[in-house]
Description:
This protein has helices at residues 4-26, 32-51, 53-58, 66-71, 76-80, 86-109, 140-155, 167-170, and strands spanning 122-123, 129-130.
Amino acid sequence: xxxxxxxxxxxxxxxxxxxxxxxxxxxxxxxxxxxxxxxxxxxxxxxxxxxxxxxxxxxxxxxxxxxxxxxxxxxxxxxxxxxxxxxxxxxxxxxxxxxxxxxxxxxxxxxxxxxxxxxxxxxxxxxxxxxxxxxxxxxxxxxxxxxxxxxxxxxxxxxxxxxxxxxxxxx
Length: 171
């Protein structure tokens, strides 16, 4: 991706759209829930990009913006060869700050998503039973914890090992 604007569009299309579909399926009262879905989707995708730098590089992929690589004097070859220098760490910090910005925005909006949903979905089985109301419980802090863990791993010198999310966190 040439720059952050292009990468943000990618993040919107691969992550935020999933959140937007989810709020439409589950329903919401406050239209700001759509903004929450967009912000959280971008935050999660930026976190995934940082987490997967090594795995993506092994596949010949770089998702970090080329303009930022140049600004931090990091070459594509360094990333593809798994050479994570102090310059790369500065680049990763810049990307992490973008993720934190989106997490903060999602947190600021999250109260609107904690209200019971006004729409109830009917399930046509038997006597038109009403499915129980679902409530979205935003867990921005948990995802920020993943970003913090990634930051600690990045600064502990264990760059070569992949960052793993436990099965419990995944569920």
